[in-house]
């Protein structure tokens, strides 16, 4: 205001106040645009992650289809957890990840970790293997290779396929996902006490009480 000494003091005050008002308006507009942009991105992500009925129905074709689909694997894992048998799918997943190991130097420590967690006598999450398979896998620990858990993994896969997978297809964890879109929770459409669906982070959440 000193530079404009010829201007009345009230003019300087009005200009500063006017500029402050304009700046506040622009900031509000910017925040609004950022919020709209954020909401739009969330909607696009949500849309891209929605499960189609066709995808879910394919899970009933085979256990292979189910556990090789990220959302299917999450649903099956949640079901097994409800039955206190999630160690089976955790072992299978660990074996899949182990077979992707590229560094030979990492094979032994990774193999030992899986063995100690799922197969050894003192395993914290011991899986149900016959003595022959367990003994063979133990022998494989002497010189671990990418295929050292293959037989044990096949046995656990077969166990899940013949047992828990069949129960999963009859459970709300699957039935509520494969039901027609728009089927509400009225008496005709919601005979079960709870429904389960998958959120964007592949977690099971309860929807209908």
Automatic annotation (TrEMBL):
> Carries keyword Nucleotide-binding?
no
Q: Biological process (GO) annotations? A: negative regulation of signal transduction
**One Pfam family in the UniProt entry:** RGS
Is Lipoprotein there in the keyword field? yes
InterPro entries membership: RGS, RGS_RGS4, RGS_sf, RGS_subdom1/3, RGS_subdomain_2
**Superkingdom of the organism of origin:** Eukaryota
Cite the Gene3D superfamilies for this sequence. 1.10.196.10, Regulator of G-protein Signalling 4, domain 2
Coiled-coil stretches noted in the UniProt entry, renumbered to this chain: none
Q: What keywords tag this UniProt record?
A: Lipoprotein, Palmitate, Phosphoprotein, Signal transduction inhibitor
Where does the RGS domain lie? 62-178
Described purpose of this protein according to its UniProt entry: Inhibits signal transduction by increasing the GTPase activity of G protein alpha subunits thereby driving them into their inactive GDP-bound form. Activity on G(z)-alpha is inhibited by phosphorylation of the G-protein. Activity on G(z)-alpha and G(i)-alpha-1 is inhibited by palmitoylation of the G-protein.
User: PANTHER family, per this entry?
Assistant: REGULATOR OF G PROTEIN SIGNALING, REGULATOR OF G-PROTEIN SIGNALING 4
Name of this protein: Regulator of G-protein signaling 4
Q: Which organism is it from?
A: Dasyornis broadbenti
Highest classification ranks of the organism = Eukaryota, Metazoa, Chordata, Craniata, Vertebrata
